[in-house]
């Protein structure tokens, strides 16, 4: 009986073969009331669009199983709430690695296991608004997970990383004036040359960087162009959207005409001042929301993403990130909105896998492939049908 009422969305799209030429990945979260089945995401979106890297917020078993044998590179995440336990207990770290990592390698050879490349310790655990909630446990947890990887003989395959929020950096506030005299000198545009790691983190960050360097792990930072844009009254939106004619910031001998280059230099300056200027970097998150605030629209997000992808291919970047993870793959309607309504609208694809706009992920001018024959997870049929009809988005039969 249920199969008669199974909602099916049929789309007339021919499957196209696409290629991805840059180390671009996607954050794939599952905070959705009606998630696509992970296997559908893997075959219908990731593989169909030749997306070869994903960053997960956790180590969801269904998601990991669906990635098995695909060759897609995966970052799994340790939730912030587990950091305290993992700091204090090597045993807990061993069972975390065993349960959430080792087990997915158990198939053995190529084509069978999950290609987990990184374990992310916490999710932005140094966020200023968290205060001391997680910070004291991060290094200990990272070390214990590393020890567990040694025990599991996985250190040659998996590296430990810590995704940092952009607010680990601050700017010497007595000296953030824009040196371009055409901009009012009362404006407070942060200058990359004045950047350094937050003072309250100086011990922790130094320990972290030593730890990462020793393992050969990169330093991971999340960029947040949209909130920077919202907070920077004196920077035009063009500056955030990679518009070639955006008004530049002048910082000594350097000129920045987009936020991305200024952010890269903020990182490089801060790392250099700490003695780790050579460290490799990964951008753990970068994106633009499509709803929930002024200037959060599909059209602007498309401009942002096209500008980003083009820019990532350019030679002008002072330090190329090893990998860049778009935030995010899909909209998630269960994400917390305590930080604003935009939280549920970060996807390049809608919750049901339809591209909101087009961007070249390696396929050139061809369109992105949407998920088709979408067959939602079966738990909430009645509710969903009703909502779909109410939204007038869906054929429900
Ligand atoms: C996918 O991307 C890889 C790496 O860039 C490329 O070698 C491969 O040919 C692409 N495959 C398709 C089907 O586009
Ligand atoms: C982290 O774990 C170690 C080892 O058990 C312990 O000595 C230390 O106090 C813990 N750190 C915090 C902040 O609790
Ligand atoms: C990972 O392992 C821990 C410890 O065994 C377990 O409690 C947890 O549920 C597992 N899954 C995730 C997603 O953390
Ligand atoms: C901040 O700027 C002031 C004025 O230029 C300078 O005296 C001070 O040393 C700077 N502080 C840091 C931490 O760079
Ligand atoms: C700069 O801003 C200050 C304070 O807002 C204002 O008094 C001043 O006239 C402005 N100067 C210019 C050149 O815009
Ligand atoms: C950390 O900051 C304190 C005070 O701001 C300073 O005394 C100390 O030297 C700094 N430590 C490092 C490692 O930079
Ligand atoms: C300041 O910015 C304006 C507008 O982008 C530009 O024309 C001017 O040359 C800049 N001035 C300096 C000193 O860099
Ligand atoms: C951003 O929002 C403001 C206020 O609604 C609007 O004036 C402006 O045109 C928007 N910018 C773009 C690029 O759409
Ligand atoms: C926030 C900020 O610094 N705003 C300034 C932007 O520039 C204008 C003049 O160009 C100033 O009046 C604002 O105070």
UniProtKB/TrEMBL annotation:
<feature type="signal peptide">
    <location>
        <begin position="1"/>
        <end position="23"/>
    </location>
</feature>
<keyword id="KW-0732">Signal</keyword>
<keyword id="KW-0326">Glycosidase</keyword>
<dbReference type="InterPro" id="IPR000490">
    <property type="entry name" value="Glyco_hydro_17"/>
</dbReference>
<protein>
    <recommendedName>
        <fullName>Glucan endo-1,3-beta-D-glucosidase</fullName>
    </recommendedName>
</protein>
<keyword id="KW-0378">Hydrolase</keyword>
<dbReference type="InterPro" id="IPR017853">
    <property type="entry name" value="GH"/>
</dbReference>
<dbReference type="Pfam" id="PF00332">
    <property type="entry name" value="Glyco_hydro_17"/>
</dbReference>
<dbReference type="InterPro" id="IPR044965">
    <property type="entry name" value="Glyco_hydro_17_plant"/>
</dbReference>
<comment type="similarity">
    <text>Belongs to the glycosyl hydrolase 17 family.</text>
</comment>
<dbReference type="GO" id="GO:0004553">
    <property type="term" value="F:hydrolase activity, hydrolyzing O-glycosyl compounds"/>
</dbReference>
<dbReference type="GO" id="GO:0005975">
    <property type="term" value="P:carbohydrate metabolic process"/>
</dbReference>
